[in-house]
Amino acid sequence: MDGDSRGEHVGGGSQDGRVGEGSRGERADGERFDWRRRPVGDEDAGFFAFGGKSGCMTDPFGTVPAAAIRDGTATDAYFERTLRTLEHAGKNPHVVAEVTADQFPDGSFEVFTGVREAARLFDGLAVDVDALPDGQLFDGGPVMCIEGPYREFAALETSLLGLLSQPSGFATAALECRLAAPDADVFSFGARHVHPALATVVERAALLAGFDGFSHVAAGEALGREASGTMPHALLFCFGEGEQAAAWRAFDEAVPADVPRIALTDTFWDEVAESLLAAESLGGRLDGVRLDTTGSRRGEFRHIVREVRWELDAHGFEDVEIFCSGGLGPAELRELRDVADGFGVGGAITDADPVDFSLDIVEVEDEPVSKRGKLSGRKAVYRTADGGHHVALADADEDGEALLEPLVRDGEIVREDDLEAATERCLADAEAVGFGPSA
Fold it and tell me: Are 215 and 229 in contact (CB under 8 A)?
């Protein structure tokens, strides 16, 4: 964004970026500061998977409406008060702000995602935004850079950080699980641990990290993917003890042919006994068995899995696969990956801490600034030839691949990140930087 265009970016503003009469920052009424009057179209509700009137909790499940996210009312109170103060003082400086988690690389890589949703926040605003590509791994330095009149985007900070922090935390945890069992099928079962409005966020993060599927039906519709899953213990309870075979046969008869026949075999009896019964009941139609044994009953889970595998093989069911679920994380996947064929992972993803992103102004009217403990000046980040992550001032001459790319130019989204490409990028970058334990 060049200096000649700054005055046009704020309606009625002067060339020094200060807002004058008729600007977007002008109060719309005498009671509430309306920092931005931007229409919210129907596409916003579908994109954010929310609904309702801006500023109102019209949704019966207590979610913040999409319109409130778009118009900046889904914000912290001190941003509204800051905007009032800046309007009162006639100030609207041209700034550069950066989203960072750490200032310098420390060897701990994380996955960056949420960029698709973040771009929608800036659609139609007088700002330029650069960001890492979706699925890129990072270790210090900015993941996003925003340039424009401060009042143009100030109220969006709260939502912006939320759109980036939690999905990046989910994706980082999912990548740890994916790489813990690289040759197994791994599915996300975590949507039940979060607010339903976040189901698509969880499942997309898992797919981005290379998972083979997920369980949530509505998330699948939003993502254009088919949800996976076969049967819960409730199905077996509805038929009753001793009628497990009837439950499995009814399932086989009822569900579409393309749904894998995976029998849950740890409900009433020993895992070996139920697994053999399932194999005998469904014969060649049985694709696999799932062991979801409660942690308090497992003892040595690896031994149970090996015993089931042994007895299935001994009775001629070598083609029946074994899937494990229930409280599994990277450590358990590494322990079981040579004896199980697939895994369902839930809490290991959804229990992940959000990435602790913050947004800081680093330039005001082309002059470098920073709060204590932060680094001033616009920065660039690079992937070095040896897989390292390097942070430097933007105008420095550095070796390596520059990672920040244009995302928004003068309010127009100029990049659309594709999920498949993001997955490929994430897995390739994980290998390049040596992400996670090697064992």
Answer: yes
3-state class of 299 per DSSP? Answer: coil
When computed from its CA atoms, the radius of gyration of the chain, rounded to whole angstroms, is 26
Parallel/antiparallel/unpaired status of strands 321-325 and 185-188: unpaired
From the list 240, 186, 229, the residue with the least C-alpha distance to 210 is: 186
152 and 433 in contact (C-beta within 8 Å)?
no
Strand partners, 393: 379
Residues 284 and 242: their CA atoms lie apart, in Å, by 22
- Please name the residue that has the structure tokens 């890492």: 132
State yes or no: pLDDT of 57 exceeds 50. Answer: no
For the CA atoms of 424, 427, 431, 436, the dihedral, rounded to the nearest 10 degrees, stands at: 170
Q: Nearest CA to 429 among 138, 33, 25, 19?
A: 138
pTM recorded for the entire structure? 0.86
Q: What is the DSSP letter of 191?
A: G
Instruction: In whole angstroms, give the CA distance from residue 286 to residue 259.
Output: 11
Per the DSSP assignment, residues forming a β-bridge with 343 are 186, 324
The CATH code of domain 177-350 reads 3.20.20.70
Please tell me the distance from the alpha carbon of residue 385 to that of residue 372, in angstroms, as a whole number.
32
SS3 of 129, please? Answer: strand
Q: What is the largest CA-CA distance in the chain?
A: 84
Give domain limits for the chain.
Answer: 177-350
Integer CA distances (angstroms), 406 to 106, 133, 238, 373, 397, in order: 26, 9, 55, 27, 19
Is residue 276 within 8 A of residue 312, CB to CB? The reply is yes
Distance CA 311, CA 370 (A): 65
Q: How far is residue 82's CA from residue 71's CA, in Å, rounded to a whole number?
A: 16
pLDDT of residue 61: 83
Distance CA 351, CA 173 (A): 9
Tokens in use for 102?
């750490």
Query: Which pair of tokens denotes residue 106?
Result: 């420390």
Nearest-angstrom CA–CA distance, 25 and 22: 8
> In whole angstroms, what separates CA 276 from the centre of its chain?
39
* N-to-C CA span, the chain: 47
Higher pLDDT, 343 or 300: 343
343 and 178 in contact (C-beta within 8 Å)?
no
* DSSP secondary structure letter of residue 389: E
pLDDT in tens, 289-315: 999 977 666 678 999 999 999 999 999
Distance CA 149, CA 48 (A): 26
